[in-house]
Structures are given as C-alpha cells and as structure tokens.
Design a protein that fits this description.
Length: 285
Amino acid sequence: MLRPRRSVLFLPASNPRAIDKARTLACDVVVLDLEDAVGPEAKTSAREAAVAAVAEGFGDRETAIRVNALDTPWGAIDLAAAAAAGPDVVLAPKIGSAAAVEACDRALAGAREGVRLWAMIETPAALLELPAIAACAGHTRLDALVLGVNDLALGLGARSGPGREPLKPAMSWTVAAARAHGLTPIDGVFNRIDDPQGFADECAQGRAFGFAGKSLIHPSQIDPCNAAFSPHAAELAWARAVVEAFEAPEAAGAGVLRVDGAMAERLHLEQAQLILALHEATRTP
C-alpha cells in the first residue's frame, strides 16, 4: 500500500512535551530532530530521548530521526544510535555528494532492513551533484530527497520571499532528480507560522512543482498541508472516469481513449491509479 508523506513534522528530540503531542497529531511523518533544533549542550540527551521515543512508537505515523552531519562531532554517534534504534527513516542533513550518501548508508549497515535513508538537499554543492546523489537509490537505502530551503537560500546568497522565485530552479531540479530514481521529493519548510494564506499558497506551489509533501515546523500546519497534498474532488472524479474507461470491455487493448471530452493515454491511466491509491491510503476510516 502506498505510504503518504504529505506532512513531515519536525520537532526537537529534546522536547518531551512535543514528542508526546506528536502521537496525537495527524501528520504522516514525525521527525525527531537532533540537528538544528538542538543546542550543543543538549545533543547527548536529545539523542537518548529520540531513541526512547522510537522504542515507544508513534502509532501508524512514519518515524524519522534527523541526525547531525557526519563532519560534526555528533554525526557518527547519532548514526550509530539511529541504526540501533531502528526508526522508519534516518534523515541526513547537508548531503552534498553521492559519497556522503554512501557514507551514511555504510553507517547504517547494522540497522534493520526496513530503515530508509533520506537526504537533505540544502547546499549549492548538493544542487550540482543532484543526479549522482539521487542515483544512489539503486545501491543504498536512499528513499527520499528533502529540500532544505533555509540553508539553501543562505548558501546561495538568495533573498527568497513570497513565491520563492530564487529557489524555483532548485525546486524543479530536486523533484526531477527524485522522480527519475523513484525517490519521494519533500518540499521545505514555511517559516511564517502566523501566515496561513502564505502557507496555503506555498503548499499549492509545492504540489504544482511535483513534491509529494512538505516539511512542517508547527502542528497548525498539518491539516492544511494534508489537504493540499491529498487528491481533490475533481482529481478523484477524473481518475475514476479514466480507470473505468480503460476497464470497459470495449477498451481492451486500447492505447488512447476519449474521457470526458479529452484524450487519455495509458500514462494517464497510471496517473489515475496513483491518485486513487493515494486517496485510499489517506482517507480516514
């Protein structure tokens, strides 16, 4: 069954109240952060808290630990602890090359088989190496690319405001690299918590670019994010019509059909099936 990754909520692993609350929230993915959200003095205790939280579980939510980068004093220890804890995902920051992906993958060699690796694309170097980074999906645990918009804008010297004009090339490249290698592309965070319209606009933009979901920094962003990255009523109606048309006995072997006044090819059938699978995976009982 398709696993939705519409809403990816980051929270400090050092905050026990946030961890407890996350178990009641409707996010698809919980990310226990050991990196940006945790100061140097709290790295050890946050790591221990993340391991304990993974052991307790988050219900049917996908659970991730964002480790510190391997070139920091905490990276190797974080990766070893994450490998032993066995979350669904280990999220590696500041990935700038295929070699960095492979180094993280080697560090997870002892983890259970189902542990996946996600790579954050948040540096100019990463943009230049995107094809090689994404190609690691063929021989590592790599499963998703997560755009880190704040660090990327800083690294580029860009001033990214509403519309994210300076970041649009990076958004397209990240989605293209991910989709080319069967990876999930996750959009970056929206910083202005008190701007719901701006957040809604950015979700719509991210979906239009081809992202499967978005990184979140506050629980108030979960519901609008889930709605934005879920199939809408018109999409579902189109998808059902396409599937029904191709399943009709008279359509056997047809490569192209007319559906609701428009041409539908086999590629549209595949798209329709994905829409219906996502709807099935995200609908409430």
